[in-house]
Amino acid sequence: MSDVLIRTIDAAHAADACLPNEPFRLWGRMIPSLKRGKWGYETEVFEQVTEMCFPDEPYDAEQDDAIFLYKDLQA
Question: What is the rounded distance in angstroms from the CA atom of residue 69 to the CA atom of residue 25?
């Protein structure tokens, strides 16, 4: 099992937010649901796999709010 940590990005961890965005494969989507008070989800697999990349954005730890999820202590 992997260790997962969710952390607010502050001045001490601002460098973590300066990673360049990398392309990733977009093969489907997750559709969350809340039925009778219980959360669940379904997945929809696309017919065609595409690639997407979010634009790099400047981040200022003094003004911007961000939360990162770290898996095995890597952002």
Answer: 19
Q: Tens digit of pLDDT for each residue in 30-62?
A: 999 999 999 999 999 999 999 999 998 877 777
pTM for the structure as a whole = 0.51
Q: Please name which of 9, 1, 23, 12 lies closest in space to residue 71, comparing C-alpha atoms.
A: 1
Helix (H, G, I), strand (E, B) or coil at 53: coil
Q: How far, rounded to the nearest angstrom, does the alpha carbon of residue 59 sit from its chain's CA centroid?
A: 16
Q: Kindly report the average pLDDT of the chain as a whole number.
A: 85
> Cβ(29)–Cβ(52) under 8 Å?
no
SS3 74: strand
Largest CA distance in the chain: 43
